[in-house]
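This part of the workshop introduces the protein records we will be handling. The question running through the whole workshop is how a given chain folds. To make this concrete, we reproduce a full record directly below:
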Amino acid sequence: MQQIKRVSIMMLSMILLALSASMTIKAAIGLAAWDAIAQSLSHLSMIRVGTVGMILNILCVLGQILLLKKHFPLRQLLQIPVSILIGLLINYFYYTLLASFVLPNYAVTLVIFLLGTVLASLAVSVVMVLNIVTFPLEAFCMALAQKTGYRFSILRQAADILAVLLTIILAFSLEIPMTAREGTVIGMLLFAPLLGVFIKLFTPLIEQSKNEVARH
C-alpha cells in the first residue's frame, strides 16, 4: 500500500512537472537549458516539443546503458515510460489545454513563467525525495561521473552550458526563435534555491510516512 501511495504521488508530480514546463514554454521569455534546446529542435524539425524532449530523455537512458552496461540498474528503465508520459503530457498541455490561452502583457507573462518555475521545482523535489526513479539527464551525468571521475555537479552544469550554447548557435545560424532569454537566467537563479527549500520541506514528511507504516 505504501509503495502504491509513493508511485501515485510520483505520477501526480510528473503531471505537475509537465504542466509547469508547458507554462514556461507558453510564456516564451526563455527556458531552462534542457527545455530550451528541446524547443529549438522542435522549431527546427517541426516535431512537437514534448516529443523532442521525450527523444532526448530516452537518448540519455541509452547513454546510461552504454556507459554502465551490466551495472545499469534495471529499475532505472522506468525512466523510459516516465519520459514518454512527460512528453505526451507536455504536448497535451501546451498544444491543447493552453493553446487558446492569451497572455495580454509582459507582467502576466512573467507571472506565468515564475509560477511555472515554482511548480517545476516543487514537482522535481517531490520526485527526488521519493527516489523511485531518477530523471534521465541527471542519471546520465551520474553515470558519466562514475566512468570519468569528474564530479556530478560539474558534468551537470556542463550539460546546461552546452545546451544553451547549442540553442544560441541554432538560433543565429538557422534563424529559428531564440529560446534562451531572460527567463533562462531567472530560472537559473530561482530553480536550485527553491529546489533546496522544497526538499527540506518534503523529506521529513516522506520519512514520517515511512516510519508510520513501519510501526503498523
User: Anything to note?
Assistant: The mean pLDDT is 90. Residues 2-211 form one domain.
